[in-house]
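Exercise: predict the structure of this protein bound to pyridoxal-5'-phosphate.
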Amino acid sequence: MKGFGVLQSFSGAGYNFMIQLTVPSIEEDDLEAVRKVLTSRFLVQGSHVAAFERSVADYLGSEYAIAVSNGTAALHLSLNALDVRPGDMVLVTAYSWISTANVIELCGAQPVFIDVCTDTFNMDPAQLKIVLGRLMTNKEIAQRVKAILPVHTFGQLADMTEIMKLAKHYQLPVIEDAACALGATLNGRYAGTWAAMGCFSFHPRKIITTGEGGVITTNDCDLALKLRALRNHGLDSDKSSPDFVMPGYNYRMTEFQAALGITQMSKLDRIIEARRSLAVHYCELLDESTVNAPFVAPGSQPVYQSYPVLLPEESSAFRTEIIARLKAQGIESTIGTWHMPMTTYFRTRYSYKIGDFPAAEWVFQHSLTLPLYDGLKKSEQSIVVQQLVAILEEMGIRA
Ligand SMILES: Cc1ncc(COP(=O)(O)O)c(C=O)c1O
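Solution:
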């Protein structure tokens, strides 16, 4: 591999990059916490899950937190808790990781995609208003519309003020996909505390990790009880003797994941601070270039789960080649996330075509995620930006 002798090469677990996209923040106390549980012999349904739930709920100021096996399970259970059934419709952002739309389909319901804002990549409230206006004036269709599912894309909150106004007007519940946004705020209010339920992920690319893992936050006692039953085979945990009151899943989190979650929560603020500081540095480095740093909306404090830049117009057709050339220099990068309506399943099922969601399409084509994690060095960020600019120039693109 060509490159920067001063940097350590990461060659484990299929990686061969000197600068990885992300590295989870796992330290000695995390290892010790997991080891302790593994040697205790109580691997599931002990006290660690409850303690992890309390720690997330307290951090966010939520009444309840329900730990589950991953972020997709959190979304799936939330839709189940709202009784989303075959034939129903859920309004969802067009640009996200595919599970945001998959879970709707897995309930037998139809995702109604809403285009995004080209600056924040989040659900566009103006588009939401137009689509709601169209659907809710038809009585039959209005009965099928069950929820709104915005995503806090890459760790920046969607415009929840406007989305909640529309939801209130049409009396629709909202589920926040806050998978990437633990600790992010809008006007001082945390992601996952604006709506009926907030869904978080603890996948290793997220702000903190439990390997796989997720949490649902809510202030609604009935929803919390239902979510707890649904994640555990339909068992009503409030009854004095065990009873199964609904068909449920096994979406439980293990004790050792929860133990890791507890130590990870203790470093959440430090991780967020580091990510924000690195984001500011990237912004300075990119300032003179034609590559656009992520836009931050007024009142928004993102956590930068990812750092997606927007490439100059003429380079979008060459993005795969740019990613390959960065890889050849030992730098891992990737696309932003997915234009979900144009993935094979959704495109063929609902006959979407190019141009149906112009903003999501544009963002999908132009975004490039650069390495960002709390242990990334500023010198490594400089190399990332220098190499990206050099590659664009080599390709004849004004950088
Ligand atoms: C926006 C979004 N929603 C949902 C998920 C699903 O989370 P998990 O991978 O924990 O199932 C992810 C994870 O990548 C995500 O980014």
